[in-house]
UniProtKB/TrEMBL annotation:
Cited Pfam families: adh_short
Positions of the UniProt region annotated as Disordered: 1-22, 350-372
Superkingdom as given in the UniProt entry: Eukaryota
Protein name per the record: Ketoreductase domain-containing protein
Keywords: NADP, Oxidoreductase
Gene3D superfamilies: NAD(P)-binding Rossmann-like Domain
Family, as annotated: Belongs to the short-chain dehydrogenases/reductases (SDR) family.
All copies of domain Ketoreductase, residue ranges: 41-220
Annotated GO MF terms: oxidoreductase activity
Length: 372
């Protein structure tokens, strides 16, 4: 028996060029371009009280969506409703919901059924944005804290997807945007619960999309996203001096420097990238995929054929020596020919070319939302 050899590749399976990197809104996803693009589309956004959720609400307002904004402990600022209406939102409703509990998600969907669906006849877009993230040693972190992160980051999105997908299937259209993280694709020490939950969310998205595609529902499209490095209340708390001080001393400077270097992206970059994806502009190329919003969407779509030919692009996968295929032909992706990302094994920080691109983002752009 001959030795196995890696599967052959051709130039058509590889990207022709590296997409440009951004840290703020750029021309292809400019709010002017998508003004009214989602007119009256009923959009549920979880975790709307924070900087990321508010930017999502404002971005979808420009697109003309009708918004159902959820929060848990802290209500959004009282000015958010007026701001969203001024930007173009068709309607704005606030709903208290603990997405970590099935009962809370069921109550949200029941309220949507009684008010939103009864009034508007449909829900069109679900954005699972609520998140929980903390630092801690795996063997000393209280199990309740670990389970809570999984409940918010994975169970909540699962509950709402499970509850709303039959509605999307019935109307044969709908979009689900799961806010994941780069942490779902790399191993970061002391962020075990967050990494595990986000990795599962990325694969959950891909699996459900495959089921939808088998049903022939072209207008039901799902995405998981890395939203960039954003200074939010959650990340400021996670990387605060008091939080970092609980870690081994040798890691303190690493986490402090990583936060200061990598967390300089605008929340509106994620907001407008989500609007663009919800509009369907990339549904035939990136449906079910894991998308880094910092990559130029125009550059990605220009290489649609390369992405279609290599299922491992924009997906959660692994590689093996010898090109071992990691998947089931016709069902699961896997060609075994993608180069592994460079990651510092001691502190989990992305290095190499990808790390350099991340560092460059903070020096590239500024954008005053909404830009008109």
């Amino acid at each position: 028996m001959s030795d196995p050899s890696p599967p052959s590749t051709t130039s058509t399976t590889k990207p022709q060029f590296a997409p440009r990197s951004h840290n703020d809104v750029y021309p292809f996803i400019h709010p002017k371009k998508f003004k009214g693009a989602l007119q009256d589309k009923v959009t549920i956004i979880t975790g709307s009280a924070g900087a990321i959720g508010q930017a999502l609400a404002e971005s979808f307002s420009v697109a003309g969506a009708k918004l159902v904004l959820t929060y848990n402990n802290t209500p959004p600022p009282t000015t958010l409703r007026e701001k969203c209406v001024d930007l173009g939102a068709g309607d704005v409703a606030f709903v208290k919901c603990n997405v970590a509990e099935l009962e809370g998600c069921e109550d949200l969907v029941k309220q949507a059924s009684v008010t939103v669906i009864k009034h508007y006849g449909r829900v069109d877009i679900l954005i699972n944005n609520a998140g929980a993230n903390s630092l801690g040693l795996f063997d000393t972190q209280p199990p309740e804290a670990f389970i809570h992160e999984l409940a918010v980051n994975l169970h909540g999105p699962y509950y709402l997807m499970r509850l709303l997908l039959p509605h999307f299937k019935s109307q044969r259209s709908g979009c689900i945007l799961n806010i994941a993280s780069r942490a779902g694709t790399v191993a970061i020490p002391y962020s075990t619960g967050y990494c595990a939950g986000k990795a599962a969310l990325i694969n959950l998205t891909a699996c459900v999309q495959k089921e939808v595609d088998i049903d022939g529902l072209d207008d039901v499209h799902l995405y998981s996203l890395h939203l960039g490095g954003i200074k939010s209340a959650m990340t400021l708390s996670k990387y605060s001096p008091s939080s970092i001080s609980t870690l081994p001393p040798a890691t303190h400077s690493v986490f402090t420097n990583s936060f200061n270097t990598l967390y300089n992206d605008s929340p509106y970059l994620n907001g407008m990238a989500c609007v663009a994806l919800a509009s369907g502009i990339a549904k035939h190329v990136l449906r079910g995929k894991y998308v880094d919003v910092g990559q130029d969407l125009e550059d990605i779509l220009a290489q649609a054929e390369a992405i279609k030919l290599d299922e491992e692009l924009y997906s959660l996968h692994t590689s093996f020596l010898g090109g071992l295929v990691n998947g089931v032909p016709g069902i699961g992706a896997g060609t075994g020919n993608d180069a592994a990302k460079e990651v510092d094994g001691e502190d989990g920080v992305v290095t190499g070319k990808e790390g350099k691109e991340l560092k460059e983002r903070g020096r590239q752009e500024t954008f005053e939302f909404p830009g008109f």
